[in-house]
Amino acid sequence: DIQMTQSPSSLSASVGDRVTITCRASQTISTYLNWYQQKPGKAPELLIYAASNLQSGVPSRFSGSGSGADFTLTISSLQPEDFATYYCQQRYSTPLTFGGGTKVEIK
Amino acid sequence: EVQLLESGGGLAQPGWSLRLSCAASGFTFDDSGMHWVRQAPGKGLEWVSGISWNSGNIEYADSVKGRFTISRDNAKNSLFLQMNSLRADDTALYYCVKENDYTESFDFWGQGTLVSVSS
Q1: Is B61 in Cβ contact with A101 (below 8 Å)?
Q2: Residue A99 gets which letter from DSSP?
Q3: What residues in chain A have per-residue pLDDT under 50?
């Protein structure tokens, strides 16, 4: 099974900050990497697919990069509505696996 | 508008069975792979099972293999998860999830149905 490791597990940031979350796969997965945002009490929502493609309707302050085993989600200027938990997920092989999540909190 | 409405969750004792259902609308159901993803209270996301558009490809997480069975009825735009031999660690919110087969991502999620397993 492919293990997905996110870091940090949580972070505190202020509105306007640039935020970077990393995700590392236990083996190379090309660009078969997706990112999701989950707000408390809500279902996850797709942000980025195939490592760097912005899902329709997602603000352009979100971006993704990486290939192989190392990936990054960046929020260029954190907004109040961005405080949430973020998950990466590999789609390279089954069982499909998620990272443990990164909780972005208000500083 | 895509809608995924789960039902069938509830309280069960260890060893019992439950059958989850997901009613889909707003998209061409028989063109889409579908999945179940669960989230234990206060924990992260865990993929449970997936099924291709024509039921020709079915996969399970090791944690549920041999106990859970995924199926679909394309004529009724419905997805199912038969859960047998339930255990306490199956306690979770179960999400019905649509896969975008082009981008290979989970592009729509239901709101989930809660399964609690306790004696």
Answers
A1: no
A2: -
A3: none
Distance (Å) of CA A18 to CA A11, A26, A48, A57, B43: 12, 27, 17, 20, 26
Interface check for B100 against chain A (CB to CB < 8 A): the answer is: yes
Q: What is the pLDDT of residue A106?
A: 87
Distance CA A19, CA A81 (A): 14
Mean pLDDT, rounded, of chain B: 98
Which residues does chain A have within 8 Å of residue B109's beta carbon, measured at their own beta carbons? 43-45
Answer yes or no: do A95 and B104 touch at CB < 8 A.
no
Is the pLDDT at B102 greater than 90, yes or no?
Answer: yes
**CB B18: neighbour CB atoms within 10 A?**
20
Residue of B20, B115, B21, B8 lying closest to B77 (CA atoms): B21
- A38 and A84 in contact (C-beta within 8 Å)? yes
Within 13 Å of residue B18, how many CA atoms lie on the same side as its CB? 22
Task: Determine the residue of chain B that is closest to A43 in CA distance.
Answer: B111
What is the per-residue pLDDT across B44-84, written as a single tens digit (0 to 9) for each? 999 999 999 999 999 999 999 999 999 999 999 999 999 99
A59-62: list long-range contacts, CB under 8 Å, 24+ apart: A62/A35
